[in-house]
Amino acid sequence: xxHVYLGLGGNIGDRESYLTxxxxxxxxxxxxxxxAISSVxxxxxxGKEDQSDFLNLVCLLETSLSPExxxxxxxxxxxxxxxxxxxxxxxxxxxxxLLLYGEELIEKEELTIPHPYLLERAFVLVPLVExxxxxxKHPKTGQVLSxxxxxxxQADMKKYGFISSNAQHFDIIKDExxxxxxx
Length: 183
Fold this sequence. Notes:
With 183 residues, this protein is α+β, with helices and mostly antiparallel strands. The protein is built from three helices and nine strands, in the order βαβββαβββαββ.
């Protein structure tokens, strides 16, 4: 079984519902187990900035699915949750990115792992560091992710809440008193 970090986000429709429904689907994947879910963060759009703010989180999945099979599963979940690929970095109901797949390095047309923008995106780095081992390294650069200077990256994000679950159902609980982002 391999530990896989997935980044989830969306900025149109009922953002909370799309995130929780995606988590419920990931939780039901065969040969996989959802192990951890970060806090939920509200962030400014990245890449194409003239759009609504996103809700983002990172989850840790343990799976025996291959990277390619997992990619197909996540794309099916996106399609089932009304994801339309109209514009690069455009608005979306849900986006599920494979950030890290164990220590694998994969460079194919349809899949690059680690995610090529992982080190540039606070909206995945901050929640990833929140749930990952303090020793987790970027497989390509060798950087220990918990030692990165995240403060300068996280100016346009705030903690929105956290995930509550009861085995099969997930909810987002807005919590203004949630702990501050770790520096």
